[in-house]
Specification:
about 375 residues, alpha/beta, Aminopeptidase, 6-stranded mixed β-sheet, 4-stranded antiparallel β-sheet, 9 helices
């Protein structure tokens, strides 16, 4: 028998599975994967753990119910990520790794984004455990969505899973999402030469150069906004955020090193590689003649923009069942990667993105049963004989 929803979510939240570009706080997701695999085994799914190359402490899970998904096309994938963002426990009112049920909400790290989706998916799937399916139902759990998307990239590299349709259960308030912006996080580094501040000729000030670079980036941001718009987005232009900067070490020294980190969000249809090249050229042009050295690098590989038909079959069905108009979001997901594998993909799930990445993150009780009911109808349509 499948455990109750709260018991499942309690066990998942209790397993730290933080993914981070900072190695000191990055954690394994294997315990979360093991819980899911055990529950899915009990339901009759064929489960397969897929360790990430060069990261044996990280893995994806592919679980298939019904006909063999490798050999039989069609069917439905329900996908989610097992990792969470880092946490500052001092900002929480309770232990973020101990599920707290209060005020018709489940509080805990990952409860909303997005460990809560897995008990929803499994409680929807239990209705089909003993039934003949015409097409496979596949549940996919990935690693590292919150950092490098390494789990989703590994799926693409392996060419699996295969299906006609996919739902990624990110917290969208049960609104079907058919498009989102791409996300790139980049670092601009300027190396100058330090010296005594009393004589500027004794060094090359990296911060002076970075000032010019920032001006060039602000101008480039305006050009992108003038050249690219998408009516489906509330913020209907690409955005370029100058996020944080580190420079120098003392006011009486010429600044020898400056580093700027930026967040770039591109619209569907924009070429990420081309925009990155343009951005780097603008930075190099701004730094020309300064006797400093400039480099531009990515913090991790970019997440491409995603767009599927707003009137696609799956989008329309989720819209009708949830009574919510299809929309778009500015945050990135794994949707592009599943779409690359040939699936009509929609982002849809319980919880609100407003609660994600926040202290006292929570999943509202009110979203849980409607999400289960909706998924059961979708599974019935795309998998049942």
């Amino acid at each position: 028998m499948l455990p109750k929803f709260a018991h499942m979510l309690k066990q998942l939240v209790a397993e730290p599975s933080i993914s981070s570009t900072t190695a000191e706080i990055d954690r394994s997701n294997l315990r979360v994967i093991e819980h899911l695999a055990n529950w899915l085994d009990d339901l009759g799914f064929a489960t397969e753990l897929m360790p990430l190359p060069e990261r044996p402490d990280k893995a994806n899970l592919i679980a298939t119910l019904g006909v063999n998904g490798k050999d039989h096309p069609g069917g439905l994938v329900l996908a989610g990520h097992t990792d969470t963002v880092p946490v500052d426990e001092a900002l929480w009112r309770s232990d973020p790794f101990q599920l707290r049920d209060d005020d018709q909400r489940f509080y805990g790290l990952g409860s909303c984004d997005m460990k809560g989706f897995f008990p929803v998916a499994l409680h929807a799937a239990v209705e089909f455990a003993d039934k003949d399916l015409a097409a496979p139902l596949t549940i996919v759990a990935t690693s590292d969505e919150e950092s490098s998307m390494a789990g989703a990239r590994h799926l693409v590299a392996s060419g699996r899973p295969k299906a006609d349709y996919a739902i990624i259960g990110e917290p969208t308030g049960l609104q079907p999402i058919y498009a989102h912006k791409g996300v790139s996080m980049m670092t601009v580094t300027v190396h100058g030469a330090a010296g005594h501040s009393s004589d500027p000729s004794l060094g090359n000030n990296a911060l002076d150069t970075m000032h010019k670079v920032m001006g060039a980036l602000i101008s480039f941001r305006q050009e992108l906004a003038e050249q690219h718009q998408h009516p489906g987005f509330t913020v209907n232009v690409p955005t370029l955020n100058l996020g944080c900067m580190r420079a120098g070490d003392n006011p009486n020294r010429i600044c020898g090193h400056a580093e700027l980190q930026i967040d770039l969000r591109l619209l569907p249809g924009m070429d990420s590689d081309a925009v990155h090249q343009q951005l780097e050229q603008r930075c190099q042009d701004a730094a020309a003649g300064s006797n400093t050295q400039l480099t531009v690098s990515t913090l991790y590989p970019p997440v491409p923009p995603f767009e599927s038909p707003a009137d696609g079959n799956l989008t329309k069905m989720l819209s009708e069942l949830s009574d919510r108009t299809p929309g778009t979001v500015a945050f990135g997901t794994e949707a592009h990667f599943l779409q690359t594998l040939g699936m009509q993909t929609v982002v849809w799930g319980p919880g609100s993105i407003d609660q994600a990445h926040q202290p006292d993150e929570y999943l509202e009780h009110a979203h849980i049963q409607p999400a289960i009911d909706t998924l059961q109808k979708v599974i019935g349509r795309y998998c049942q004989a």
